[in-house]
């Protein structure tokens, strides 16, 4: 990421060869990402029939969206979810530095263990957590009952449901953050630790003054990805809560709102407008993160 | 930073999902004359269904079908009911509907009106199909603008399932065919009180996402209705309809039924199946599941209790249909005719998965689990059945029911207020049809 390559020849000298090499990738990107975005932009100004066929309705969908009471709820829920999942980064940093301590046995095994939830299918993960969270028969409430707490129906009580989903999101994303941060740790030159210990720095001081600042590029990368993923919260929420859940209206995310309009109510023009809003929000937040990185990211 | 850029473009994923569904090509209209494949025809067709419990019987149907048509390969596409019609609508949009698929009452008019289904008239004319072998109510359900589009597969009515062992534990007399609402409520409350330390409830039913086995029936029993006979106005604001909804709200409030949260975490069929609820109002589709329950020997079935006005259950049936633009129309028609045949429906009955539509095959279903008393469903169909409420775009107001009514059942808002809001919103949807 932080490129240390020697200054490259200016692009003009390479001729058209580089273009040829990126062509296959660009083809896919244009066909599967850019073109659908353009199409969705167009659809957001149309109304759909039951089985396709669009009529132009101008900005009607956006006007309806502005009056949609669920939009505000969905934005807030999505932000809360993303914020909670971001809390996983400090945890991942801590675990990653433990895993990369010299002389730790089975470190590869631990790494696999932490990474597993990330590669497991969200639906499968959600099925297991649904059992854990079950209000009447779940192991979580059973454990709480042992210490005298009467736990709620975690995934079907408004408020609790969002926290329950966020915790699973955090748990799932931990593995990815740990892998990236572990790789980041490896790029920190060992001389810095030697030098600082000669100067009498404690392990904690080393973590604070060497590890943390030099890890910021990786932390930046992980946080950008986490935020983007956070804004796309859908499958986990859907699988964990299921349909016909009394708390879904208070817990829905932006993409859930999109799904509901597009595929359950079959109002695809309106849904396209929601998709455009999601795209704009994610774009704006990501841009903001890139702007802010100067303030806190240290490139060695 | 290349990886980052690639991931950033994931932001367009939602947009992609939408756009992919839009790749609709222009399909050409299917001819009116239906052809049935010759027995040596070669083809591969897809059959879409939503009930996992019926899969073994369907596989058997296909095996038997292949004895006559060895070269027609049928692939079953199983999608859970919750996603089935979402997927089907997307397939309809992109002209990729399965060749043969299950259809239900709420959706048939939508598909027929958009010319996505092949009328079965041609098959009737050619003698490959005889509608008089199926109940009239079902033929009518699948007829739109004078043309029949579906071949009835089975039919469902709703009855009261109960667990004898739990009634005995609580010292309450088991339900009878003569029960009234009061008998039902009293028993449900007593059982919940007496067996609360075992976590057992008096009654469970589906309240979160469909009314067929719960409030549709009680609304009718109270003398109300969901939709007017001409399909133009909602009946939810009628006092009798509100009474039918209040019945369930009261059972939830008194604790005779688990809360809506509990019914969402653990579905009603699971509560009953695992012996944690003494009563369960459900249709004959539950036979396939309950015959494998650990507590199956304790289960019995009686008619739904009589309401303040009358006895009632809604009747509904699934039908098989062929897509209008199927590329293997002849093979699909051959399979459709087979699925509508006495032999195929008897197989389904004998395997205890469905109450078949074909005249005279229902006995086999009743005998599939003699201890249950399945004949109650047939008697209910003859004596107290009302048509399932549908209109041209049923899904639109079904979504309103699912969004609003749980607020009434949970006690969050007064039943009357919710019912009136629902009636107004539903009337708006019906006006659009």
Automatic annotation (TrEMBL), chain A:
Query: Which family, according to UniProt?
Result: Belongs to the binding-protein-dependent transport system permease family.
Q: Where is the signal peptide?
A: none
Organism placement in taxonomy:
Bacteria, Bacillati, Actinomycetota, Actinomycetes, Micrococcales
Give the stretches traversing the membrane.
16-35, 79-100, 112-132, 160-181, 214-234, 270-290
Keyword Cell inner membrane (UniProt): no
Q: What is its main location?
A: membrane
Q: Which organism is it from?
A: Isoptericola cucumis
**Protein's membrane topology:** Multi-pass membrane protein
Name of this protein: Sugar ABC transporter permease
Task: List, alphabetically, the PROSITE patterns matched.
Answer: ABC_TM1
**Per its UniProt record, what Pfam families does this chain match?**
BPD_transp_1 (PF00528)
Keyword entries, A-Z: Cell membrane, Membrane, Transmembrane, Transmembrane helix, Transport
- Keyword match Transmembrane: yes
State the coiled-coil residue ranges: none
Q: Which residues form the ABC transmembrane type-1 domain?
A: 74-289
The compartments listed are: Cell membrane
UniProtKB/TrEMBL annotation, chain B:
Q: What's the chief localization of this chain? A: other
Tell whether Transport is among the UniProt keywords.
Answer: yes
Matches recorded under InterPro entries: Bact_solute-bd_prot1, SBP
Pfam families recorded: SBP_bac_1 (PF01547)
* Keyword terms of this UniProt record: Signal, Transport
Coiled-coil spans in chain: none
The family database entries (PANTHER family) matched by this protein are listed as: ARABINOSE-BINDING PROTEIN-RELATED, SN-GLYCEROL-3-PHOSPHATE-BINDING PERIPLASMIC PROTEIN UGPB
Q: What is this protein called?
A: Sugar ABC transporter substrate-binding protein
Q: Which organism is it from?
A: Isoptericola cucumis
